[in-house]
Amino acid sequence: MMKTAMFGGSFNPIHNGHIQLAKAVRKQLGLDRVLIVPAFQPPHKEKSGMASGEARLAMCRLAFEGDPAFEVSDMEIRRQGASYTYLTLEELHAQNPDDELYLLMGADMFMTVHEWKHPEIIFSLAVVCGIPRNSDNAAVLAKQAQLLSTLGAHTRIPDTPVMTVSSTRIRAACAAGEDISALVPPSVHAYIREHQLYSAQG
Structurally, how many domains does the chain consist of? Predict the structure, then answer.
């Protein structure tokens, strides 16, 4: 049985923190593959300042190029509309009925997942993995995991490196004309510069 994880998000843009976390969680949980799934339109986020789905998809592909354990999926971009996680998991399960599915998410998402659209479907299809922001945050997530278990969820709280960079910070740096080369892979940096993403002129 393959262990397949879905790591979704706006990835606006994808950065070194996302990549470091995805690789650490894959190793820790013994995942066979991780699907990186850029959202077409995240239900919880404003659309302003969002690069196109095609651009975010391209950056994700560049970020994980050459690593066979990671695949970038266009299923939410292709589906369009609001990117509801339960729909994506249903599609993944239909495509890979024998796989054990995992859902990777940041701390903020983990704290609200029971309020998402059709959480019962999410909990029936995947192990929900909350990624702590720091060591203090891990205790809060452990308490949330207890709540989610009463709702039928199977959960994991991986012990991962702290993500010190954010997409918001990168977009602000681009708009200010600052150097972001230390925050994203070189190929993603080149793509952002070539397409003038997030810049004051772009």
Answer: 1
